[in-house]
Design goal:
Oligomer: single chain
Strand order of the largest sheet: 2-1-3-4-5
Low-confidence stretches: none
Largest sheet: 5 strands, parallel
Shape: elongated
Structural class: alpha/beta
Order of helices and strands: EHEHEHEHEHEEEEHEHHEE
CATH superfamily of the largest domain: Response regulator
Helix content: 40-55%
Number of helices: 8
Number of strands: 12
Length: 223
């Protein structure tokens, strides 16, 4: 299967050159010129690799990297004109897998792309806590040996819990990571979604895994 790559850069000439080079190598390529467009596309197109410039208008590359990492395990190669240790460390701390300084040779970029895709191919694309398993590629979910019939919303909500096991997640955090907008305090749609997910993963007397932490939110943990 041909790998799909998303390139995010506000420099039209760089975007065009990278797109052309990657297409010639046989990759499927999508592009975005700013962080907001990139985040919208990542959620829908689910690329196999993200090439991301640091200096973007609006939402900067570091923020895009952090948010992309919250919703996907896509390998991220960051591009930057800054070649200082703090900048490289910041990129890696925000969830990047590799870092390439501009100007760079296309051959080096291609070698890094191939290495990241090979590494990703060897990684398991499943999330697990206790006997709860989520397959991110097939969108299947299991509690023990029993398959779970989850809606797309259930799947997304459960994936957020599984990426943060034992961590207390506020309604504000869940709202931002699952629905993509800020939480309105008077609304109870987050509570309703969590109750519906619980109904599906905790049927037939199975031990509760999603705990209510009063005054704070919810946590995926055993008590």
């Amino acid at each position: 299967m041909t790998a799909s790559i998303m390139v995010v850069d506000d420099d039209a000439s760089v975007l065009s050159a990278l797109r052309r080079a990657l297409v010639l190598e046989g990759y499927q390529v999508t592009t975005a010129a700013d962080g907001e467009a990139a985040l919208e596309m990542i959620g829908t197109s689910q690329p196999d690799l993200l090439i991301l410039d640091v200096m973007l208008p609006g939402i900067d590359g570091f923020t895009v990297c952090s948010r992309a990492r919250e919703m996907s395990h896509v390998p991220i190669l960051m591009l930057t004109a800054k070649d200082t240790v703090p900048d490289r460390v910041s990129g890696l701390d925000h969830g990047a897998d590799d870092y390439l300084v501009k100007p760079f040779a296309i051959d080096e970029l291609m070698a890094r792309v191939r290495a990241l895709l090979r590494r990703q191919a060897g990684h398991s694309r499943t999330l697990q806590y206790e006997d709860l398993v989520l397959d991110l590629d097939t969108h299947e979910a299991f509690r023990g040996d029993e398959p779970l019939n989850l809606s797309p919303l259930d799947f997304q909500l459960l994936s957020v819990f599984l990426k943060h096991p034992r961590q207390v997640l506020s309604r504000e955090q869940l709202c931002q990571q699952v629905w993509g907008f800020d939480f309105e305090g008077e609304s109870n749609f987050v509570n309703v979604a969590v109750m519906e997910l619980r109904r599906k993963i905790e049927s037939e007397g199975q031990p509760r895994l999603i705990q209510t932490v009063r005054g704070f939110g919810y946590a995926l943990r055993v008590e």
